[in-house]
Amino acid sequence: MQSPPSLYIVPTPIGNLADITQRAIEVLAMVDVVAAEDTRHSSVLLNHLQIKANLLALHDHNEQQRADALIARVQQGQSVALISDAGTPLISDPGYHLVTRCREAGVRVIPLPGACAAITALSASGLPTDRFTFEGFLPAKEKARDDRLTELQDETRTLIFYESPRRLLETVQALARLYGERQIVVARELTKTFESFQSLPAPAMAEWLAADSNRCRGEIVLMIAGAKPDPDAIPSEVLCTLALLQKELPLKRAAALTAEIHGVKKNALYKLGLEQASVYSEGT
Ligand code: SAM
Question: What is the pLDDT of residue 77?
Answer without folding.
Answer: 97
